[in-house]
Amino acid sequence: MTPTLIARDLRKDYPMNGETVHALRGVSLRVDSGDYAAIVGPSGSGKSTLLQLLGGIDTPTAGAVELSGTRLDALSDRELTRLRLTRLGFVFQRFHLLPVLTARENVELPMAEAGVRGPERRVRARELLDYVGLAQRENHRATQLSGGEMQRVAIARALANRPAVVLADEPTGELDAATGREILDLFLRLNRDGTTLVVVTHDDRLAAEAGRVIHMLDGAIRD
Amino acid sequence: MTGAAWAVKRLARQPLRTGLSLAGIAVAAAMLLDMVMLSGGIDRSFSDLLLGRGYQMRLTPKGTLPFDTEATIRGASAIVAALRREPALEAAGAVLGTSLYARRGDSLITLFAYGLQPEAQSLYQLQAGRDLASGAGAGVLLSEPAARLLGAGIGDTLTLVGRLDPQVVTAAAGRRLVVRGMVRWLYDYRGQPSVGMVLSDLQRLSSSPAEDRASMIVVKARQDSAVPGLVTALRRRFPSVEVSSVADLVATFHERLVYFRQLSYILGSMSLIVTVLLIATLLTIAVGERLGEIATLRAIGVSRRTVVGQVLAEGTALTIVGGGLGIGLGLATARYLDAILTSFPGLPAAFSFFVPRAGALAFAALVLLLTGSLAGLYPAWLAARTPIAATLRAEAT
């Protein structure tokens, strides 16, 4: 298997009330192309911090992240932003869709930023909305969608630029059990269709369905 | 979706806040526009007024401006004759301005009278009836307020008297004149009852024996470009009178109104500052409320440049819409203020303080657009430096 994402001895310290909090204490992992990895652990174990470092949203205090052979710490802020746009997909617990845009416009947004021409991105956005089962809701504003629908639009948005890895932080955390189930099914289908997934979750069902589970405790992986 | 459309959608999401901000920007823009019109409008209006009949030069008693005092030029006909012989000059005419009285029943009505030479008149526009003609005496022209006050119309005969003795209220000289036409006097203040007649008639009515004097001599050059040289030449030739070009008079007027103009600059600057503060405040609040959204955009790979562009686009959209409303409001306000200011006694009714000029409108719009767009710089800077990870963590809790 080709390693898509590699973390080497990641450490992350935060200053808090005059003291240093060690959020990550030397985490190393490897995610291969086509993997479906779930990162689980109690609150404060460093799951979300790890995901942010893997996604180049935050920088580690020590250690390094490689995405498809590119070290993130070697990139400028502009290059890192471009890499997040074109090589990574993000799904957040609270969806974070732009409320003033329609479902299709939200999906088109990363493609527009990447310079994809209008007609091409509209076709791709429709395909993705169809893929997540929301073809009929493309012209609805984000505020007119249910929680599950918003998360499906967020997943379509994450896939817009054909990323190497999709990183999801508690994607079912804001959803009821039935709606969460739909999202889990969608993730399974995505992975079967070849998408590499790294998901931070408290959801036992999601962890059970992932191909690989990474347990975290006190800022370290405990396998 | 374009940045502008996105900006408009965002603004429409908070209609009350956006509406109030637009109202504030419109008021500030209206004030800016009015001040820009005021700062250059007075000079322009004065110049247009003086050049209304194409006479570029004025000869007045030494040390005075036209109709500034009751002083007169003696030997006016000789000066006019000399001027008319100048090949570079197209026309010259003397004007006398003085008070006259019209007898109506047992009472006398005070009027202002212009005596002029019909072949070279620079003071009125004929609105009805016939004009005065050289050599055709016994005619008089009335302004609308004078006609109303006297209850007279074209074809009526008026008895006008001059040199009133205030002690006994008797007139030393009187004359019956037929109303030939109705005119609009260019330099009359609002409601001023004025009459006009041939210069020699007024000279006879105002002094005995008739004195060859004039309040002012107006001169028209054949070419505008020759005026500065002609002014110099006329000053040498007629040292006993004041020779001024319209440009000289506008410059004098300009100096007299320097405080007015400074006031307009200060108020205009204040309106710009208010606009900047309004837009900056609105956008700073909006950015503060949208930090999570901005952090998300940055996380999914939207560049700082795009984020900054979005905030600036919102500032620009506010400025364009608010400024557009401000133009309408500014023009309406200017019209209202102009009506108040030009009703002050002593000011020509045709004079305008607020002159809408394409250049002024374009300048005000450009300055407003630039400052309004720049007002978004601070909130845009805040948006650009939003810490992605910390903001997303805060949003998740």
Blueprint of the fold:
The complex is a heterodimer of chains A (223) and B (397).
Chain A: E1 3-16, E2 19-32, E3 36-40, H1 47-54, E4 62-67, E5 70-71, H2 77-87, E6 88-91, H3 103-114, H4 118-131, H5 147-159, E7 165-169, H6 177-192, E8 196-201, H7 204-209, E9 212-217, E10 220-221
Parallel strand pairs in A: 3-8, 3-9, 6-7, 7-8
Antiparallel strand pairs in A: 1-2, 1-4, 4-5, 9-10
Helix pairs in contact in A: 3-4, 3-5, 4-5, 5-6
Chain B: H1 3-12, H2 15-50, E1 57-61, E2 73-74, H3 76-84, E3 89-104, E4 107-116, E5 124-129, E6 139-142, H4 144-150, E7 157-165, E8 170-185, E9 194-198, H5 199-206, E10 213-214, E11 216-221, H6 227-237, E12 241-245, H7 246-256, H8 258-289, H9 291-299, H10 304-341, H11 358-374, H12 377-384, H13 388-396
Parallel strand pairs in B: 4-9, 6-8
Antiparallel strand pairs in B: 1-11, 1-12, 2-10, 3-4, 3-7, 3-11, 5-8, 6-9, 7-8
Helix pairs in contact in B: 1-10, 2-7, 2-8, 2-10, 2-11, 8-10, 8-11, 8-12, 9-13, 10-11, 10-12
Structural class of chain A: alpha/beta
Number of separate strands of chain B: 12
Whole-number radius of gyration of chain A? 17 Å
Q: Which oligomeric form is depicted?
A: heterodimer
Give the N-to-C terminal Cα separation of chain B.
32 Å
Count of discrete domains of chain A: 1
How helical, in percent, are the residues of chain B? 40-55%
Principal-axis shape of chain B equals: elongated
- The ordered H/E elements of chain B are HHEEHEEEEHEEEHEEHEHHHHHHH
Query: Care to count the β-strands of chain A?
Result: 10
Helix content of chain A: 25-40%
- Summarize the biggest pleated sheet of chain B: 6 strands, mixed, barrel
The CATH topology assignment of chain A is Rossmann fold
**Proportion of beta-strand residues of chain B:** 15-25%
